[in-house]
Amino acid sequence: LSMGGTGKSPVVAEIARWLVARGERPAILSRGYGRADAEDGVVVVSDGTRVLASLDRAGDEPLMLARQVPGAIVCVSPDRYLAGTLAERRLGCTIHVLDDGFQHIDLHRTLDILVTTVGEIPQGRVIPAGRLREPADAASRAHVLVVSGATAGAATAEAWALGISLSCGATRTLGAPIAVDVRNDSTVRRGGSLDPPDPPDPPSGTIVAVAGIAHPEQFTASLTEAGWRVAASIAFPDHHRYSRADVDRIAVAVREAGAGSVFTTEKDAVRLEAFAPFPFPLYRVPLRLQFEPPETLFDSIRVVIESDGGRPTAEGGRPGAPA
Q1: Which of 306, 318, 307, 247 is closest to 279 using CA atoms?
Q2: Phi and psi of 102, rounded to 5°?
């Protein structure tokens, strides 16, 4: 319901991982916002075993999701019905997950999961005056509310205010930093599989935090809370297209701060790797979510899957197809 920064893609990744672990073959359907090469038709970013599209054709978030969730199909198209039909007929998809699909009302769905932060919707205003894409009462369309950075109690209060019966909180946990190495990360260039790279040597000393996301200050705060010594931070706009000048600017910050390495988000890493080798050690920091209580979200999905309406079908027209 809001412009970026509520944590939609991390929730999509966790749902897709859960589905893969259950033996499903999910297809993540994305419109591919910010692609440099916004071609017509459907771009298959991942067939579930290999990354097949470049950053320019995929967009940063679909490419990130393709790498984060081995076993998940990732397709990009402004026509997500077309993307879903291709995923079913050609790639064996068993269930669809739309990334940022709350306003995609011309596509039938069986479960609407709304992701927000505390107060974002009740206190928000519709664009251009604020960050809401629709008035706050549109939230009542959701079946489940996920509140980022909130406890279960705070999520319940937020859901009550919005007229949503089911809710859970979601807390962010940073994983161990992973060295950005194009030999391991850029599977498009080397035609490799989605197997994880070899564990890198752990970084040490102070760091420079770099983030081009909706709320870059949250990334820096999370690093500090995790015990990393952040000597400097550099923020860029969400979906920022990096240049060699940006890399040089980061290198200057590293030297001036006397830092040992640069930490960035996984979404930024896919946009930065074109400039490797880097004049500094670069690490991407995985983000995982923990839901409280977890059964609220996943039991809702399980019930949908086990119902007759929870399975996609390539037959019929748009109103009844991919769910």
Answers
A1: 247
A2: -65, -30
DSSP alpha helices (H): ranges in the chain? 8-21, 55-58, 60-68, 80-91, 152-162, 182-185, 187-190, 216-225, 244-257, 266-272, 294-306
Q: Express each pLDDT in 224-252 by its tens digit.
A: 999 999 999 999 999 899 999 999 999 99
The pair of three-digit structure tokens given for residue 192, joined into one six-digit string: 């490799």
Q: In this structure, are residues 241 and 271 in contact, taking their beta carbons and an 8 Å threshold?
A: yes
Q: Which amino acid is at 172?
A: R
Estimate the crossing angle of helix 8-21 against helix 294-306, to 10 degrees. 60
Contact (Cβ atoms closer than 8 angstroms) between residue 30 and residue 100: yes
Rounded distance between C-alpha atoms, residue 323 and residue 321, angstroms:
6
State both tokens at 15: 């749902």
Is residue 77 within 8 Å of residue 58, measured between CB atoms? no
Residues 49-73 pLDDT 10s = 999 999 999 999 999 999 999 999 9
pLDDT confidence band for 309 (50 / 70 / 90) = low
One-letter amino acid of 288: R
pLDDT at 287: 92
CA of 292: how far to CAs of 175, 219, 263, in Å? 19, 21, 28
CB atoms within 10 A of CB 221: 14
Joined together, the tokens standing for residue 235 give 């923020």
Paired tokens of 251: 């290198």
Rounded Cα distance between 45 and 220, Å, is 29
CA distance 254 to 234: 10
pLDDT at 303 over 60: yes
Q: Give the SS3 label for residue 156.
A: helix
Strand order through the sheet with 144-148 = 113-117, 144-148, 166-174, 287-292
Does 317 score more than 50 pLDDT? Answer: no
Whether omega for the bond prior to residue 128 falls within 30 degrees of 0, making it cis, is yes
